[in-house]
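R.M. (postdoc): so does anyone remember the format we settled on? I'll just put the structure tokens first.
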């Protein structure tokens, strides 16, 4: 059966009549993971859920007042949702900021090639991955192909049981003596992460043909690449040149699952950072009190490669979105109002933290590590080694959050990523802190972070959701 190129929204978007995401929170979370393996798919789900809860596109609102709910999106890969509070917005917002991109493989712009009867998709990995983890695992292809006539083809192949999947091959152990001597970073090279998308039976060579006949046969030869391109052309109208304007992401195929006999864990792709993105979004949607301070859920792109580009936190997207909000609240808009609103805001940089690994205890300072099931993780600073690249939160703000969590009966833990000289990592916190706002990293513990399949604790998802709801009411 040939693979299907489908409209993702028609097939996978579940339009639930239940607007409360906290009901069946874990099932809703797993559905979000399964139906949101790319930034575009996450944004589509978020906007769909926001509309069901009364949010409108900001372009539909000429003015705004307390209680109004709007969203702003850009390039279908970053979105900010605002519920307008009763206070002057210059007093600041309560912001939950997460990212919705995850490590993966991206198809190159000239991706399809054939080598010795096997057809491949040429890729470039995205974000920090252990390349050897991606071989011999079932893969799916998600994304879009944009054609010069202005039409767009949505692609989702490998998720249905009737779909084929794709994979990257590896060397058999019998011939891998040299491979196994290499360092982990060299076992599989980036240029070898090419995905098998087809094959063709070798044909016998006609040794008796003259050169003219050989050339003619070569021109007429049916190859695996030609077969696939013909299939794309005949069934879906895609030419090989159309891949020059495509955005295809190769991700692990399959659904997230409960893990463990006690079902205490969730195994799924992209939980860094969609675990925090979903719970942040759900907390805003389920807010049961009208906020005094304007509430915001911000879901950005490109964090895994440095928060760069037009849809990353390093762009002016959030600043511009907030300017649009203020201009609709106050006809006499001023730059000073924007600067005051940003500087007076509170933000939780809703990003995951490394869970303590009992099989690799030497990597952690156990007294300052986060544990699966331990609740929401507060990380005062990230960065690496000497806090390089960190946003170091003020203790006054942390104390305010501690009181907030205690009142809401939220379990939380204070932690760092790992031992001081072991390594490190960053979040979007420092990019928000540049405005002068109070920012603290607050997220969910993840085991096997950045692997094709990551582990979180169900209890932590619940605690994050409850904690984020409490934060949105912080004054």
């Amino acid at each position: 059966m040939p693979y299907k190129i489908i409209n993702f929204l028609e097939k996978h978007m579940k339009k639930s009549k239940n607007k409360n995401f906290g009901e069946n929170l874990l099932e809703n979370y797993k559905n979000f993971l399964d139906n949101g393996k790319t930034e575009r798919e996450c944004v589509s789900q978020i906007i769909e859920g926001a509309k069901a809860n009364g949010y409108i596109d900001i372009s539909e609102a000429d003015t705004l007042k307390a209680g109004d709910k709007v969203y702003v999106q850009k390039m279908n890969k970053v979105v900010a949702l605002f519920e307008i509070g009763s206070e002057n917005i210059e007093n600041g917002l309560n912001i939950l900021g997460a990212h919705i991109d995850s490590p993966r493989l991206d198809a190159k712009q000239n991706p399809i090639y054939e080598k010795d009867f096997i057809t491949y998709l040429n890729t470039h990995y995205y974000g920090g991955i252990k390349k050897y983890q991606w071989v011999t695992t079932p893969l799916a292809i998600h994304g879009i192909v944009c054609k010069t006539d202005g039409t767009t083809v949505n692609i989702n192949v490998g998720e249905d049981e009737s779909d084929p999947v794709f994979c990257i091959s590896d060397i058999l152990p019998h011939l891998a003596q040299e491979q196994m001597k290499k360092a982990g970073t060299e076992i599989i090279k980036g240029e070898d992460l090419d995905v098998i998308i087809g094959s063709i039976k070798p044909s016998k060579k006609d040794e008796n043909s003259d050169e003219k006949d050989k050339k003619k046969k070569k021109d007429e030869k049916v190859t695996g690449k030609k077969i696939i391109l013909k299939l794309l052309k005949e069934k879906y109208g895609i030419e090989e040149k159309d891949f020059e304007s495509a955005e295809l992401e190769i991700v692990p195929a399959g659904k997230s699952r409960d893990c463990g006999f006690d079902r205490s864990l969730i195994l799924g792709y992209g939980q860094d950072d969609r675990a925090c993105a979903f719970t942040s979004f759900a907390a805003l949607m389920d807010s049961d009190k009208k906020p005094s301070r304007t509430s915001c859920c911000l879901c950005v792109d490109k964090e895994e490669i440095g928060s760069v580009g037009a849809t990353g936190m390093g762009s002016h997207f959030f600043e511009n979105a907030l300017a649009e909000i203020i201009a609709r609240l106050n006809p006499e808009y001023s730059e000073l109002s924007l600067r005051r609103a940003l500087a007076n805001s509170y933000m939780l940089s809703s990003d995951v933290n490394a869970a303590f690994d009992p099989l690799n205890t030497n990597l952690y300072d156990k007294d300052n590590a986060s544990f699966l099931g331990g609740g929401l993780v507060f990380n005062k600073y990230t960065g690496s080694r000497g806090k390089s690249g960190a946003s170091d939160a003020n203790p006054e703000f942390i104390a305010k959050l501690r009181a907030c969590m205690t009142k809401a009966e939220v379990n939380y833990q204070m932690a760092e990523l790992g031992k001081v000289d072991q390594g490190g990592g960053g979040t979007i916190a420092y990019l928000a802190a540049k405005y002068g706002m109070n920012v603290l990293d607050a997220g969910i513990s993840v085991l096997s972070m950045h692997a094709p399949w990551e582990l979180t604790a169900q209890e932590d998802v619940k605690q994050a959701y409850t904690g984020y709801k409490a934060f949105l009411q912080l004054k």
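R.M.: ...and that's the designed sequence above, right after the tokens. Also worth knowing: Confidence is low (pLDDT under 50) at residues 1-16. The radius of gyration is 24 Å.
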